[in-house]
Amino acid sequence: MKRRLTMGVAAAAVGTLLAACGAGGPGSGGGKISGGKLTLGVLTDLSGVYADLAGNGAVAAVQMAADDFQKKYGDKAVTKKIDVIKADHQNKPEVANTQAREMYERKGADALFDVPTSSAALAVQTVAAQQKKLYFNTGAATTELAGKSCNAYTYEWAYDSYMLAHGTGTQVTQQGGKNWYLIYPDYAFGQDMQAKFTPAIESAGGRVVAKDPTPFPSDNYSTFLLKAPTLNPKPDVLGALQAGGDLANVVKQYDQFKVKDKGVQLAIGLLFDSDIRAIGADKLAGTMFTTAWFWNLDDRSRAWAQRFQQRTGQLPTFDQAADYSAATAYLEAVQKAGTDKAESVSKVLNGMTFDDFFARNATVRTADHRVTHDAYLAKVKAPAQATQDGDYTELVRTIPAAQAFDKPSPDCHLG
Amino acid sequence: MTSFLQQLFNGLVSGSFYALLALGLAVIFGMLRVVNFAHGALYMLGAFGAVVLGDSAGLGFWWALLLVPAALAVAGMAMERLLVQRLTALDPLYNFLLTFGIALVCQDLLRMKYGSHSQPYDHAPFSGTVDLGLFDYPAYQVFVLAVSVAVCVAVWLLLTRTRIGTVVRASTERPELTRAFGIDTRRWVTPVFGFGVALAGLAGVLAAPMRAVNSDMGADLIITVFAVVVIGGLGSVFGSVIAGFAIGMLQALGNLYVPVLSQTSVYLLMAVVLLVRPAGLFGKEEHA
Amino acid sequence: MILGLMRRLGDRPAWMRWGLLAVGLAVAAILPWVLYPPVATDILCWGLFAVAFDLLLGHAGLLSFGHAAFWGGSAYVTGLIALHSGLPFYVAVLGGAVAAAVLALPIGYLAVRRSGIYFAMITLAFAQMVYFVANQWSAVTGGENGLQGIPRNLPGVDLSDAFTFYYAALPVVLLGLAAARRIVRSPFGRVTAAIRDNTDRVRALGYPADRYKLTVFTASAFLSGLAGGLFAVNHGFASLQEVDWTTSGKVVVMTVLGGIGTLWGSLVGAAAIVRLEDWLSTAGFEQTDLVTGGVFIVVVLLFRQGLWGTATRLLRPRPPAPPTPDPAEPADPDRTPHLTKR
Asked: For B209, how many CA atoms within 13 A lie in the half-sphere containing its CB?
C-alpha cells in the first residue's frame, strides 16, 4: 500500500519552505523541530461509550502512522524521535480542556488527534487556538467545529453531521423512500441532525410526513413506533436519529413492534460498528446509513485494516483510520515544512489534495479546514453474508467528495 | 381513541418497570428506613445477568428469569449483612450514602468488564404480536405487563394474607407501634432486603429483551423512580406501585400530546404533589 | 448536642485558629507553584462548592443530592453574561450566583417540606429536571455541545494565563469561605444547627424552622453558584456535565471524605478528590468511579468523621464519655457526625 501525497500547488510548497526557514527565529535554536522531537497526543475516550470506536485503537493508529513515517524517511526524516502520548477525557469537556492544555503545555505535544464527543472537541479546539498548536478532529460530529467555532489551528478530518444526514437523507429518498417519519432525540445532536435531514430529503424530492422529538435518554419508543404506520400518507422510511443506547432501544422495539412488516423501513442517522455489535446484525440487516469509511471497502482499505488488526487484534473503525490518515498527513507536512511550527505546517496542509486508503479524492479546504473526501452510503449485511466476524457493512454507493460535505459555512472566519 | 388506548397500554408497560422498582424500594424502606440508591445498579446487574447467562452458559430467558433474581437475592442479603447492617444504628442517610458508593462501584466494574456500549441480547422469547381487539401489540411487552401485575398482586397477597406479611406491613406502616408490641422485626430485615433486591433483578431480566443493556441503564431510571416513590409515598407499598403505573401512563401520553414536557412531567407532578400532599398521594405524615 | 457543637467550634485555642488561618492562606498562595495552575483553580472551585454543601449538610442536617443544579445553573448564567455583555468576570460570576439562589427558592420551598431521605430524593429529582431543561434548550445552553468560548474579561488585565487567573479567582473563593464561616458562627447558624439536632423542639420554641431551612438552602446555593461560575470561567465553557447528577454526587463524596460538619474539611476533601482524579486520568487508569466509590464506601463505613475530623480527633485529647450512654444514640456519637434527628 503506497500513500500518494500530491501537492495542490507546487509553488505554494516552495513558498512555504522559504517562509518556514525565514521563520526560524532566535527561539527555534539549532533545530527546526522544537525540543528535537515531535510529540503526537491522542486525547480520547479510553473508558466510556466511544472507547471501542476510538480509544486505544486511536492511539495505535497514530503510533502506526509515526512508525510508517520513520520507516519511509529513515535518516532523511525531519526528526528521528516521534513520541505518541495518550490521555483519557472521559467524554467530559472539562477533563478534555485540562488534559489538552496539559498535553500541549507540559508534555510538549505538537498536535492532538481524535477527541470524540462534540462538547470535548469544541473545548479542545479553543485550547488549540490559545496554545497555537494543531488539533485534528476525527471523532466529533458537530458542524460547529468548522462553522461558528472554527479556528486556524483545527482540522476536521473524518465526518460531520451534515455528511451523515445529507448522505442518508438524499440517497435513500432517491432510491424510492419518498415519505419519511423522523424521530430525533431532543438535544443538540438530534436537533442538529433533524435540521439537516429535512432539507436533504426535500431537495431530493421526498417528503417529511411527520417529525417528532423523543425524550433523551429514553427506553420506551412504543409511542412513536405505533404511530409510524398510522400516519397519512404512510411513511416509507422511519428515520431514527438516536445514538448509542437510545438507538439500541429504538431498534429492539422496532423489531418487536414489527414495524418493518407494516412496510416502514428503518434508516439510521449515526451508526457505528460498535452499535451494530451491540444491537445485533440480524436485527439491523438491510438498514441504510452513511459512513466516512469502513474496513471492507476495497483492497487498499483491507490491506491497512489487516496491518492494524495484526497490531491491535481488532478491526479498525473509521475514526481510527482517520487518525492514521491525519497523523500521516501531519508528519508529511512537517517534513515538507521542515519545522513543527503550527503556522508553517498549516501552510503546507491548506489547499492540499491527496488520496489515501481512508480519504479518497480528498482536499483540505483552506476556507474552513474541513477535509472533504468521498463518503459511502452503506447497509448492514445480514449475518449470513458476512465473510468474517466484524464484517457488517456493504457498500450501496459512493457519495463523491464534492457532494458529501456542505460548502464552507459563512459563520467560519479563520483567525 | 384507539391511539389513546394504545398510549395508555404503552404507559402501563413502561410503568411495569417503575412499579417493580418502586415496590422493591418500598419494601426495603419499610423494614429498614433505608432508601437503596443502588437499586438502579441492581436492575442493571439483573439485565447483565440475563446477557451473561445467555452468552456464556447458553441458558435462555426462562432460566434467567428464575436464576438471576435468586442470585441477586443472595447478593442482596450478603450486602445487607456485611455492609448495610453496620450502619442501621445510625442516621439512615448514611446508608443512602453507602448504597450510592455501591452503585458507583457496581457501574464502574461492569464498565471495566463490558465497556459502556450496549450488549446484544439474543434470547428474547415471543417474537410475535398479539391481537388485543383494538390493536396488535408485541407479545413480549404484554408478557412483561402480565408478570409485573402478577408480582405486584402476589406481593399484596403476601403482605395482607400471611403472618410474615402482617409483620412486614406493620413495621412498614407503624414501625414504632410494631416494636412496642414486642414483635421482633429484625429477623425479617435481611430476607426482606434480599427480596427487594430480587425484584430489581427481575425488572432487569425483563428489560433485557426490549431495552438497551449497558452500564448506565439503571442510573437514569432510578432518579425517575425516586420521583415516583415521592409522589406515591414511600411509606405506602401500594401507593408506590400505583404511582409507578400512573407515571408510566403520564409519560406515554406526554410523548404523544406534549413531547416537550414528556421528561419533565414527572418532576412537575412531584412538585404539585409536594405542594398539596407533602407526604405523597398515599403516604402518611412521618419523620423519615 | 448544641453544647457539643459549640465545643467543636469553640475549643480551639486562639493561637491554633490563627495558625490554621495562616497555614491555609499560605497554601492557597503557593498552590499554583506546586500544582498545574488550571488544576489548582479547579481545587479552589470545588473546595468552595464542597464548603457550601457542608454548610447545608453538616450545619443544617440537609442532604441535598441536587446541588449540581446550582453549580451548573450558575455556570450557564455566568457564561451567558460573560459572553453577551463583556462585563468583568466578577460581575458575571456574581450574576450566576444570584441566579443559583433564585433557582434555589422554589426547589428549596418544596424540598424543605420533607426531611432526611426524602429531601435527598426530591433535590435529586429537581436537579434532574434542570438537567433535562438544559439539554433540551440547546438554543441557549448549547445542549450537549456546551456553552463554549466564555471569556475571562477584566479590564486592563490579561487573564489568559491560567497562573494569573488563579490569583484573580482566589479573592472570590476566600470571600465565599469567609461568608460560610460567618453564617455558621452567627446566631442564625446556631438555630439551623439546633434544627438539625431537634426540629420539633426548635419549632416549639417558636422559630419558623422551614424558613430557616430555606434560607440556609438558598445561601448554600448562592455559594455553590459562585464556585460553579468561577469553574465555568476557568474552563471557558459550561457543559451538561455541570448539571449532571454525578456532579451532585461528587460534591457529596468530597464533603463526606473531608468530614461532615467540619467546614474546612470539605476543602481538604475537594483537593483530595480533584488531585486523585487528575492523577488517575494522567496515569491512564480509567476506572475513576471505582476508586472514588470505593474510597467513599470505606469512609462511610469506617471513617465517618472524614479526613479533617479524624485528624482533629487525633490532635486533641478525647473528652470524657457521657456517663450513661443513650441507647437510641449511635454507638459512638463522637465518631459519627450528627446528620438529622432520628
From this structure: 24
In this structure, are A227 and A183 located in the same domain?
yes
Comparing CB atoms, the residue among C106, C296, C330 nearest residue B90 is C330
The answer to whether C42 contacts A142, with C-beta atoms less than 8 Å apart, is no
pTM: 0.86
Question: Strand, coil or helix: what is B208?
Answer: coil
Cell, residue B254:
406526554
C216 or A31: which carries more pLDDT confidence? Answer: C216
Does C289 contact chain B (CB < 8 Å)? yes
Q: What pLDDT was estimated at residue C124?
A: 93
Whether residue A5 is contained in a domain is answered as: no
Identify the pLDDT of residue C340: 53
CB contact, 8 Å: B180 with chain C?
no
Tell me the three cell numbers of residue A358. 481512508
**Consecutive H or E run containing A114:** strand A111-114
* Closest partner CB to C135 (pick from A46, A106, A216): A216
- The ipTM value here is 0.89
Out of A215, A245, A277, the one facing B212 most closely (by C-beta) is: A245
Cβ atoms of C60 and C74 closer than 8 Å:
no
State the residue for C-alpha cell 440475563.
Answer: B50
Do A166 and A144 share a structural domain? no
A244 to chain B: nearest residue by CA?
A: B117
* Three-class DSSP category at B158: helix
Residue B28 near residue B172 (C-beta atoms within 8 A)? no
Q: What is the pLDDT of residues A160-198, one digit of tens each?
A: 999 999 999 998 999 888 999 999 988 878 888 999 999
Q: Among residues A108, A112, A101, which one has the least CA distance to residue A134?
A: A112
Q: Are strands A154-156 and A134-137 parallel, antiparallel or unpaired?
A: parallel
Report the largest interatomic distance among the alpha carbons of chain C, rounded to a whole angstrom. 65
User: Which residue(s) pair with C303 in the sheet?
Assistant: none
User: CB-based burial of residue C182 (10 Å sphere; 0-12 exposed, 13-18 middle, 19+ buried)?
Assistant: exposed
| C287 and chain A in contact, CB less than 8 A | yes
User: From the CB of residue C115, how many other CB atoms can be counted at a distance below 10 Å?
Assistant: 22
Do A138 and A192 lie in one domain? The reply is: no
Cell numbers placing A151: 479556528
**If you search the block for the grid coordinates 448522505, which residue do you land on?**
A167
Total domain count for chain A? 2
Calculate the CA dihedral of residues C44, C48, C53, C54 and round it to 10 degrees.
100
Give the C-alpha separation, C22 to A33, whole Å: 46
Say if B83 is an interface residue toward chain C (CB within 8 Å).
yes
- The residue among B102, B274, B276, B277 with the most chain C CBs within 10 A of its CB, best to mutate, is B274
Instruction: Give residue A235's domain range.
Output: 162-291+376-404
Nearest to A49 among B6, B116, B262 (CB): B116
CATH class in words for B2-287: mainly alpha
Which string of DSSP letters, residue by residue, matches C28-41? Answer: HHHHHHHS-HHHHH
* Chain A residues within 8 A of C275 when measuring between CB atoms: none
Amino acid present at A95:
V
Element housing A237 (H / E): strand A237-240
Q: What is the CATH number of the domain that holds A202?
A: 3.40.50.2300
Cis geometry, peptide bond prior to residue A217 (ω within 30 degrees of 0): yes
**Which residue, among A140, A138, A170, has the nearest Cα to A157 in the 3D structure?**
A138
Q: What confidence tens digit (pLDDT) does each residue in B159-183 have?
A: 888 887 887 777 766 767 777 777 7
| Beta-carbon count within 10 A of B143 CB | 16
For residue A153, being part of any structural domain is answered with: yes
pLDDT at C3: 39
CB A154, CB A126: distance < 8 Å: no
